[in-house]
């Protein structure tokens, strides 16, 4: 009884943090409104986005996206990631949920809102870098960094990783969302995804704004002290899942195999705890269970 109550409180608290105060109402609308969806039940996008690995993937995406000076300038100037980090998280998680699980009409409306916001986001960074959020090249960077991160995290800590064909299908499904957002030439396979990430390397660096964001994410997280240890488990696994060159930009230093193995284990432990707590929360998303591959062996 005590354990069940603790589990329920933990799940309620986590869901409230991630989904915001309107989370229960938003979930009801997303999952219970009748109508056609962009993606069928059991599709890879639903499997990936319904898994706790998204906590690792989301952190990894922010770290990787920060390495593009123009993208970082837009985030620093317009997103409010420091003044309202939980609000930004709730908006992002709701968009991902609506496009993966919501009705086609609601998904399109969410895309239209984001495109309207992108049209207003433009300016110049303190270093003189001009940016425009609706720039197709910049949109594609944000997209590929996000998708690459969700795939990498799901491979590493997902409850039921997909096979290679499943991840290719996930990338292709996400490309359809990206095209609606204005991305041109979004990758449709993991091989194309890797090629496009590599093509951006010459533009990437740890700018002062990026370093400030990375420090905020890794060392000044907007979480209570009681959650600092599991948060460190998520960030550690996010770091170790980055490409070696990106990881060197985010946190310079030599790789340490034993430390990396501990980071992977920490990520698996924390995501399992997240699944355990959310399983007791009626308003939490439920991960899909089709097309599984073998559970990854412990590092």
From TrEMBL:
InterPro entries according to UniProt: MPAB/Lcp_cat_dom (IPR018713)
Gene Ontology molecular function, alphabetical: oxidoreductase activity
Region (Disordered) location: 280-299
Occurrences of domain ER-bound oxygenase mpaB/mpaB'/Rubber oxygenase catalytic (ranges): 48-271
The protein's name in its UniProt record: DUF2236 domain-containing protein
Biological source species: Cellulomonas rhizosphaerae
Source lineage: Bacteria, Bacillati, Actinomycetota, Actinomycetes, Micrococcales
């Amino acid at each position: 009884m005590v354990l069940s109550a603790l589990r329920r409180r933990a799940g309620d608290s986590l869901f409230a943090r991630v989904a915001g105060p309107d989370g229960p109402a938003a979930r009801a609308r997303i999952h219970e409104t009748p109508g056609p969806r962009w993606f069928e039940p059991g599709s890879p996008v639903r499997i990936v986005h319904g898994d706790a690995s998204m906590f690792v993937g989301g952190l990894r995406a922010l770290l990787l996206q920060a390495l593009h000076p123009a993208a970082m300038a837009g985030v620093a100037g317009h997103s409010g990631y420091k003044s309202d980090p939980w609000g930004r998280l709730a908006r992002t998680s709701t968009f991902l949920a609506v496009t993966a699980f919501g009705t086609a009409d609601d998904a399109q409306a969410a895309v239209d809102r984001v495109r309207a916001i992108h049209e207003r986001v433009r300016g110049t960074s303190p270093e003189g870098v001009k940016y425009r959020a609706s720039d197709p090249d910049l949109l594609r960077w944000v997209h590929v960094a996000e998708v690459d991160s969700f795939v990498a995290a799901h491979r590493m800590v997902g409850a039921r990783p997909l096979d290679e064909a499943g991840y290719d299908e996930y990338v292709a499904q996400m490309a359809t969302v990206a095209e609606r957002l204005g991305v041109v030439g979004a990758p449709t396979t993991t091989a194309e995804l890797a090629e496009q990430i590599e093509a951006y390397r010459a533009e990437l660096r740890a700018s002062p704004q990026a370093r400030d964001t990375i420090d905020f994410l890794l060392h000044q997280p907007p979480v209570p002290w009681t959650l600092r240890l599991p948060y460190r488990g998520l960030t550690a696994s996010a770091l170790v899942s980055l490409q070696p060159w990106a990881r060197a930009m985010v946190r310079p230093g030599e790789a340490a195999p034993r430390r990396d193995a501990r980071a992977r284990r920490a990520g698996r432990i924390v995501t399992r705890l997240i699944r355990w707590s959310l399983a007791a929360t009626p308003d939490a998303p439920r991960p899909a269970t089709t097309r599984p591959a073998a559970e990854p062996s412990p590092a």
